[in-house]
Amino acid sequence: MTLTEDDLAFDAKHIWHPYSSTVNRPDIFPVVGASGVRLRLNDGRELIDGMSSWWCKVHGYNHPEMNAALKKQVDSLAHVMFGGLTHKPAIDLARQLVEITPAPLETVFFADSGSVAVEVAIKMAMQYWQARGQVNKNKMLTIRGGYYGDTSGAMSVCDPENGMHHWFTGILPRHHFLSRPGCRLGKAFENRHIHELQQALDNLNGQIAAVIIEPVVQGAGGMYFYAPEYLKRLRALCDEYDVLLIHDEIATGFGRTGKLFACEHAGVVPDIMCVGKALTGGYMTLAATICTGHVSSTISEQGAFMHGPTFMANPLACAAGNASLNILRKGDWVSQVGQIERTLLRGLQPCVDMPGVADVRVLGAIGVVEMKSPVVMADIQPRLVEQGIWVRPFGKLVYVMPPYIISEADLSQLCAGICNVVSTL
To answer: Which residue among 308, 328, 348 closes a domain?
Structure first.
């Protein structure tokens, strides 16, 4: 549907877009349609989407199986409260999640979004220790450079200094932060890389309810990749010090790093896992917090878990989730992500020698060009659009996380457009 000048003027005056100012408003590009990996703009231009709409549209746009699932579900049950009621889409989706996540994860709590899934995970960890009578274990431990969402609990474990939430530091719960792992992906792991973590658990023993971490890849906090060995040692230390381990797989889950879940790179399993984004193929907002039976039973033996979103386990969202997981379970994503990784390595290689570039790194369907200085969004975004690509940089990062269905030709064009723009910065 075409947008009129009046539509765009109303948007400019009355709609506050994410991570933006209403005073110094950035360029907004109106979308009127999308199919496959292409976005169609109001002026007729088409852009190759390198962002999967913030990493969730892994199957692309206007996917026939996804469309059919939503159309079928809307005619039978669009929504019903989940308190005291249940329904087939939720049961089927929970069954699939239990089947594909590593044991002993087995209890599924549905949430509205990734941020809420993290809130739920933190509350689970706190209530778990309350149920065990260890009320002093009420602090989280995490590493700097992390990003877990924009709600209060999630913000409290995001990087308090270099993250995007420093405005709110004074009103957030105070938790404990360590240096991000010094063991870069592909480099040798040494004992010194885990020393600070072990020392912190020694010093804070009796206070830490859980360690929360993004496994292998820190997403919006800097697209930083670290060695899986760190996760192995972290798991062992959490067991040794009797601390819960939470993995935020919202960005990395469902194949993005080349494994179905990033924790599989290390062969470890958390006590609590948060998933979202690609869960519904980007069709509906839905996330889940999945925990071990031990965690859920310990909490439940002392009473109810006090959380219940209005739209929890919305049937339409669950139907989308089932369709998305059905597509993933066919297994095509393995070869798709492998091809994406190879093409990104080749296509972004020219950036390595460009003067403004600090680093180029690739893992699975994630490609990152890190600049030496922050990019100017008002300048770089229109120039990327002129290349026929949709890439949304932030900070020092020009990165892509494309849909898994992207062709080699389209991905090569996406990389070439990035190289063209980066070469002029």
So the answer is: 328
